[in-house]
Amino acid sequence: MSLIWDTVGSLGPAWILGITLVVILGLWISTKKKEGRNPFEVDAVCPRAPLVTDEKERKKVLKQGFTAAKVPQNLDVIVVGSGMGGLTVAAILAKAGKKVLVLEQHDQAGGCCHSFTEKGFEFDTGIHYVGEMGEDDLPRLLCDQLTRGQLHWSKLDDEYDVVAIGRGTEVKYYTIKGGNDNVYFEHLKSQFPQDTEAIDRYKDHVLKSSGSFGGVILMKSWPRWLTRFLIRSGLVHWFIPYFMYTRVTLQTILDSISDNETLKCVLAYLFGDYGCVPSLSSFSTHAGVVRHFVNGSWYPYGGSSEVAFHMIPTIEGAGGKVLVRAPVKRLLTNSKGHVVGVKVEKSKSGDEVDIFAPLVISDAGVLNTFTSLLPREIAETSPLYPYIKNKDLCSGSSCITVFVGLRGSKEELGLKARNIWIFPDQDIAVSNYSAAKTAKDASERQVPVLFFSSPSARDPSWEERFPGRSNCIVIAPAEWAWYDEWEKGRVNHRGEDYEDQKMILANKIWESTLSYLPQLRDKINRHVQSFGSLSNVEIVPVISAILVEGSLHVSIMLFKVEYMTVGSPLTNKYYYGAPRGELYGLEENRARCSAEISTELRPDVGIPGLLLTGQDVLTCGVVGALFAGLLTAEVVLNRKLFQDVLSLQKATKKNSRK
Asked: Coiled-coil regions in this chain (predicted)?
């Protein structure tokens, strides 16, 4: 890295001035096209309406099944996939007057933002907590505009993450506190008073890396010849320090600042939020996630399905539609190699329907788009294809998720609006566990990291909707290979062996979790019951009942767990369309984040009629996909939409002060 800085520093002023002029000229030439309508010209926020809890009303929005008759005429755009990126770009284009059709393969819109209800419990599948949703944050403003101000966010506890390290009586708990950069890092120092210098060095790396991420977004909209010039000359590292840190792993940075393994574990704990272990992950990705949460974290009021529920009306307002049970089998192309539409398979009949539009936007992920949807000869024409062929771009990690329905309110169960990251052995390498050949083999090893979250404890609407009940999820790493032999089986009909393999590991995960949350264990409760009130006793399993001097001494089993179900990598593939059950699309490793590949991961992949959106385009997570949708809409409308959003933010702040 020092060599790059020395090279840049040795350039004369005339050289640097010349390069700057080339950049400015290139950008001026590339923007000499007619601009589309500004979708953020007017503040779209309306007075807040009551939460819609009627399931029939919600289904009318979220579960509109595909039929050819429902497809609008004279479409401007087709979007494949209804995840955060797909809905965002569709809603922005609708606000600019475009008629957009969004097609979702699942039976509910929202992608990872959908929720499901079983046995009287609601569970989220993807949104657990989100940063940058404070009143003055740009992602919050963008969400407000796309949902007419109807999507609201509830703040988690100030200490929103707990890192539990160790086992049994040796467990130590460390908390992560949001507020601002100073609060975040000073709170870390208060828990590691002997390591303040190491934390300062870590902070310096985080700020240097994440501070130039805006430049990464800009480069994805610059002409390819310009970005290639900046990369090959090495000047990109001068303009955007972020790319210097993409060459370095998180583990390398941690090892350079401290020998304290506990500190390293606490600093690295949120690698689960982007699904790549410290020895492989780009430090730039880690730094970006740290800054994302540095001010705190939020959760959608009413649950994660509120995102799609309030974005869809915006899309429909311009004549568009969001249709589910509409799996796109392939992209249609013409003799010139242009994408001209999609082929949809009707889920019940198996019949295929061709739908045409001037533009198709894929929110199905890079690997799905290039290896499943596009004809090979068309895919190979994209500048991005060599990185897929050479496996520089590969699927990220997968997981097993245990969904648990609990009897009792959050107060009764001691659940808080925070997450718990559990590291029994302070193992951030995860290599021994990942080396397991089967789920049964993995269940005999120590699960290296667990993520515990209770959506019911962070959603103020929950108690009204599900009184006397709570929910939680526990997520652990899992390998696709543990379950791939059942890939061809039908969902819910994969057989006893598959279910056994899931439950073996799920039981191990839940039992491990209870070591850190003992209040969730089933327990025996003993009390004395007089004969006169026996008719009011709730019907529960009785372990023993002894009559003593006219009173009945009853021991009953109080079951905390009322419902449990398990999602495997195969579950992720079925519901999300993820090729290998991955959580975050492409792996967030050094290759993916490098300047060379990152600048090719852009909406325009060099195939006429096709654009990409979603977390593969920018970075993983809700806000990463949100901004990817904005970036894709920029290309369609040929407008600097980030600037439009900033202008609206400035105007709304000014109006709020009046």
From this structure: none
Q: Is the pLDDT of residue 10 over 70?
A: no
Task: Say yes or no to pLDDT of 116 above 80.
Answer: yes
Rounded average pLDDT over 514-535: 64
Closest CA to 357 of 331, 323, 337: 331
Tell me the pLDDT tens digit for each residue of 350-361: 789 999 999 999
Closest CA relative to residue 473, chosen from 446, 510, 500: 510
Q: Which domains does the chain have, with CATH numbers?
A: 73-154+296-392+591-651 (3.50.50.60), 178-293 (no CATH), 399-528+557-576 (no CATH)
Alpha helix (H) residue ranges in 174-268: 181-191, 196-210, 213-219, 224-232, 236-239, 242-245, 250-257, 261-268
Which segments of 31-127 does DSSP mark as H helices, in order? 55-62, 84-95
Residue-wise DSSP of 568-635: -HHHHHHHH--TT--SSSB--BHHHHSHHHHTTSSSB-S-TTEEE-STTTS-SSHHHHHHHHHHHHHH
Q: How far apart are CA 288 and CA 195, in angstroms?
A: 23
Q: How far is it, in rounded angstroms, from Cα 451 to Cα 166?
A: 15
Q: What are the φ and ψ backbone dihedral angles of 383, each rounded to 5 degrees?
A: -60, -20
Give 281's strand partners.
589
**Segment 531-546, tens digit of pLDDT:** 343 333 333 444 544 5
Q: For residue 102, what are its two tokens?
A: 């969004």
Cα–Cα distance between 358 and 77 in angstroms, integer?
Answer: 6
Rounded to a whole number, what is the largest CA-CA distance in the chain?
102
Q: Which residue has 């998180």 as its token pair? A: 250
What are the φ and ψ backbone dihedral angles of 121, each rounded to 5 degrees? -120, 140
Tell me the average pLDDT of the chain. 89
C-alpha angle 616-622-623 in degrees, rounded to nearest 5 = 90
Alpha carbon of residue 339 to chain centroid: 28
What pLDDT digit, counting tens, does each position of 51-101 carry? 999 999 999 999 999 999 999 999 999 999 999 999 999 999 999 999 999
pLDDT at 492 over 90: no
